[in-house]
Amino acid sequence: MSLDLEQVRRIAHLARIDITDEEARQTLAQLVDIFGMIERMQAVDTAGVEPMADPLGGSARLRDDVVSEIDQRAAIVANAPEQLGGLFMVPRVVE
């Protein structure tokens, strides 16, 4: 995939990023390198390769789910300007 400076500027505009011409040229070079790497990766024959979640075939070691702190809800909610039933009350921001 080829890009030009105008496309890089459009992407920056859509992302609300103000970039200079020099930054646009640097970004263009980086994006061309990234797209080149993606094209090389897509050219690799992966037929017959099973998808895997872990390259070493391991499993996640999980710790026991144990309560480690005391209940401090009342002390925390006591600092709230408004509360209801142990929950913080906040002003509506979407109408």
Question: Care to give the gist of this entry?
Answer:
This protein is mostly helical.
Write the layout of secondary structure elements.
Blueprint: H1 5-14, H2 21-42, H3 73-77, E1 83-84, E2 87-88
Antiparallel strand pairs: 1-2
Verbal overview:
With 95 residues, the chain is mostly helical. It has a domain at 5-42: Histone, subunit A. It is 39% helix and 4% strand. It is built from 3 helices and 2 strands. It has a two-stranded antiparallel ribbon with strand order 1-2. 1% of the residues are buried.
Strand proportion: under 5%
**What integer is the average pLDDT?**
89
CATH domain topology of the domain at 5-42: Histone, subunit A
Radius of gyration, Cα only, in angstroms? 26 Å
Distance between the termini: 44 Å
Tally the helices: what do you get? Answer: 3
Query: Structural class per helix/strand content?
Result: mainly alpha
Kindly state the number of beta strands: 2
Provide the CATH top-level class of the domain at 5-42. Mainly Alpha
- Main β-sheet description: 2 strands, antiparallel
Helical content class: 25-40%
Question: What best-fitting shape do the alpha-carbon axes yield?
Answer: flat
- Uncertain runs with pLDDT below 50, 5 residues or more? none
Kindly report the spatial arrangement of strands forming the biggest sheet: 1-2
CATH architecture of the domain at 5-42: Orthogonal Bundle
